[in-house]
Amino acid sequence: MNIRQIADFSPNYFEINREERNYAAIFFTTLCLPGNIERFLNRFDLNGKISNDFGIYFEYSYLRDLWNRISDEDIKKNILKNKLEINEVDEILKQSAYEINAKFGVAGKPSNKYIQFPGNWSISKYDKNFIDNSDFIKICKFKWSFNIKPDIVIHLDKDHAICIEAKYEAVEGSYPVSLAEKKIFSNRGLGYVGQMELQKYMMENLLGINTKFIFLVFKKESSKTHKVISWEEAFGSVDIQSLPQFAKNMVFKISNQAGA
């Protein structure tokens, strides 16, 4: 017997789905349908003017993919010099690629040819290399920013965006995530970095994109940094008629659990 038979319970997956990325993907798809982005922007007074550079992106990884296209090592050094904002960064960047990679604790064997992807820096390795807490947390935020993926980002143009973070039941996340890294933060007497704080840092500080932030949740709550919208409100602002039935069922399920 399989598990469904043992449990005597074999629902369609949409009936039990608690995966927030799945709901975010359906909302992303819905926003891509004709007329829906305009309906959404107008409903929530986002005052967005759609340009030729308009786009809607799911699990947005701009910073990661931008770094992948940079082959000039001097440009990479300039990015680290200007955006890390740590002590002695000039002295660090005078070293070889191998030494720079080792200093920031690149996972695996450091390259001696090029500066490696900051998302692969290892906190457990560079912890011993940066004693100053201010420098340490700046490096952590920089590293994490290359790995985070906001659920949905609407680019009105290249310099203006709307960042949507979708939640099913979970509250706002924080960094670090692993127990080993949390222990390092505890030993240093450091607090964690909130998910929304990190997204704001990535979008506005590192990418220079004027961004409005939205928290998509079950129940409305107050936020000093984000516009908060319930799933019921979000799906109620758009036309879902052309979605397949399973997706409509999921919309109905999460909308009826949400509270405006």
Commentary on this structure:
With 260 residues, the protein is an alpha/beta fold. It has helices at 3-7, 13-16, 20-31, 36-43, 62-68, 73-83, 89-93, 97-103, 123-126, 133-145, 179-188, 195-206, 231-236, 245-257; strands at 55-58, 152-157, 160-166, 174-175, 193-194, 210-217, 227-230. A five-stranded mixed β-sheet has the order 1-2-3-6-7. It has a two-stranded antiparallel ribbon with strand order 4-5. The model has no long low-confidence stretch (mean pLDDT 93).
Task: Supply the key terms.
two-stranded antiparallel ribbon, 5-stranded mixed beta sheet, 13% strand, 260 residues
Strand content: 5-15%
What distance separates the N and C termini? 43 Å
Question: How large, in whole angstroms, is the Cα Rg?
Answer: 21 Å
Number of strands: 7
Following the backbone from N to C, one meets helices and strands in this order, namely HHHHEHHHHHHEEEHEHEEHH
Global outline: globular
Main β-sheet, spatial strand arrangement: 1-2-3-6-7
Figure out the total of helices: 14
Average pLDDT taken over every residue: 93
Low-confidence stretches: none
Largest sheet: 5 strands, mixed
Helix content: 40-55%
Q: What structural category arises from helix and sheet content? A: alpha/beta
